[in-house]
Amino acid sequence: MREVKALGFDVFGTVVDWRSSVAQQASLFLEACGLCHVSPLEFADRWRALYQPSMECCRSGRRSYVPLDVLNAETVAIVLREFGASPETITPDFCRAFTGVWHRLATWPDVLESLWRLKSRYIIVPISNGSIAMMTRLARYAGLPWDAILGADISRTYKPMPQTYLSAATTLGIEIHEMALVAAHNDDLHAARAVGLRTVFIPRPREYGPNQTSDLTPEEEWDVVERDFVALADILDC
Amino acid sequence: MREVKALGFDVFGTVVDWRSSVAQQASLFLEACGLCHVSPLEFADRWRALYQPSMECCRSGRRSYVPLDVLNAETVAIVLREFGASPETITPDFCRAFTGVWHRLATWPDVLESLWRLKSRYIIVPISNGSIAMMTRLARYAGLPWDAILGADISRTYKPMPQTYLSAATTLGIEIHEMALVAAHNDDLHAARAVGLRTVFIPRPREYGPNQTSDLTPEEEWDVVERDFVALADILDC
C-alpha cells in the first residue's frame, strides 16, 4: 500500500447501509400503491436482487450505457408488479420518485469520521455503479467528503468491467497500482486486482441483514483486511 | 435564479488568483533554468497569454482532446525558450513538474467560507478547463468543497464550446436553466447564456494585475452581478 495515492470506494454496502435506508423510506411508497402488507425489508431485498441482472445488458453491450437511476426505475416497476401493485399506480413518475431513495442512504457508523481522516493522506473517490448525479446527491445527503466523483458515469459501463477501475486511475492521472479499491465484496476486489489495483477488504456482515452468508470473510489475501473504516484509518496512519 | 439548483464555477481567475500563485512558485523553477533575471509575474502573464490559443486546436477538432496539463507543459516550454532558457533544461519532465504550479493556487480571500455557505443550498461544481485530475488536486490544496468535479474532462473539449456547459447540467441530471455559471469573465458568461444557463458575474479586477483593463464591468445584464462571493451568498440567502 506504500505507493497508493488514491482510495476508491465501493459505495452501496461498503460505505452506506442501503438495506435499512431503502426499507425505511419504502414504507410510504408501498403504502401509496396499496402494498401496506409487504415487508419493507423484503421489498428492499427483492429490489436489490434485480440490481446485478439489470446492469448485465449494459456490460455485455446489448444496451448502451444508461445511468443506474434508469435501471432502478425499471426494476422497481418489476418488483411492484410482483408484489401485486395495481398497474395504474406504477407510472414512470412514481417509479422515478421511488428511485430517489437511493440518493438518501445512511452511512455505516464508522464511515464519516474515518473518511475525513483518510482524506488527509489519500485522494478519496467513489468507484461506484451510481452515476455522478446520484453519487453527488448521496454525498450531499450523507456528508461524504469525496475529492471527486468517479465510477460508472466516467467509464460508461458497470463494475466489474475492467474500464470502471482503470478509468478511475487514468482520470486522476495516477498509475493503476497507485489506486486501491476499498470494498465489502470479494468479487469487486477480484476484478480490481485483476487489472492491477491494490485491494482493501472491509467486511459488512449485516449488509444483507442478520442471515447474510456471502462476503463474511476475505476470499483471497487482499492487501489489507480490516474490520471497519476506523481500523483502516489507523493502519494507514491517517 | 429561483429555479437554480446547481452553481458551476469558472475556476482560474474567478475562484483562484492564478497570477500571484504561479508567479510565487515560478521563482524556483526560473532559477533552475538560469532565468533569475526574469520577473515571475511577467513570466506568469506570458504563460497565461498562451492559454487560450493552446486550447484552440482541441476546440476546432484539429487535435483530439488532451488535458490542460499537457497543453500547459507545451506552452511553458515555448515561454521558457522565449525568455532564453537553454534547450537542455527544458526537458519534458521539467515542464511537467512546472505545470504542477497550476495545482497549487490560492483562492481569493472571499471564496472559501462563501463556498461552504453556497453549498448548503446549491450543488456546487467547477466548470473549468482544468481536468478532473487537476481540479481534484487544486481542490485538495485549496480546500474547495466541491460536490463533484465537472468541466473539460467530462465534455472532452474546452470552454466556451457549448458542450462544456450542457454536459455539466446533463451529468448532474438537471435542466439547463437549473444551472448557473459563476464567472469573472464576460465571454464565459456569454457562451453559458447562449445555451440556456443562468449567469452570475463576479468581477476580479486584479486577476491580471493592477493594470487590468478587461472584465472590469458586466457587458450584459447578467442574472446576478455581485462584488464578491460573500455578497453572492448573502443575496442568495445562504
How does the SSE layout of this entry go?
2 copies of one chain form a homodimer.
Chain A lengths: L5 E4 L8 H15 L7 H10 L1 H10 L7 H15 L9 H8 L11 H9 L3 E6 L3 H11 L7 E2 H4 L6 H11 L6 E5 L2 H9 L3 E4 L22 E2 L3 H7 L3
Parallel strand pairs in A: 1-2, 1-4, 2-3, 4-5, 5-6
Helix pairs in contact in A: 1-2, 4-5, 6-11
Description:
The structure is a homodimer of 238-residue chains. With 238 residues, chain A is of the alpha/beta class. The first copy, chain A, has a six-stranded parallel sheet. In chain A, helix 1 (18-32) crosses helix 2 (40-49), helix 4 packs across helix 5 and helix 6 (111-119) runs parallel beside helix 11 (229-235). Chain A has eleven helices and six strands. The model of chain A has no long low-confidence stretch (mean pLDDT 96). Chain A binds chain B through residues 67, 69, 119, 123, 125, 131-136, 139-140, 145-150, 153, 171-174, and chain B through 67, 69, 119, 123, 125, 131-136, 139-140, 145-150, 153, 171-174.
**Helix residue percentage of chain A:** 40-55%
Q: DSSP helix count of chain A? A: 11
Oligomer: homodimer
Derived from helix and strand composition plus strand pairing, the structural class of chain A reads alpha/beta
Low-pLDDT windows of residues of chain A: none
Order of helices and strands of chain A: EHHHHHHEHEHHEHEEH
Taking Cα atoms only, what radius of gyration of chain A do you get, to the nearest Å? 18 Å
Task: Give the spatial strand order of the biggest sheet of chain A.
Answer: 3-2-1-4-5-6
Shape of chain A: globular
- Average residue pLDDT of chain A: 96
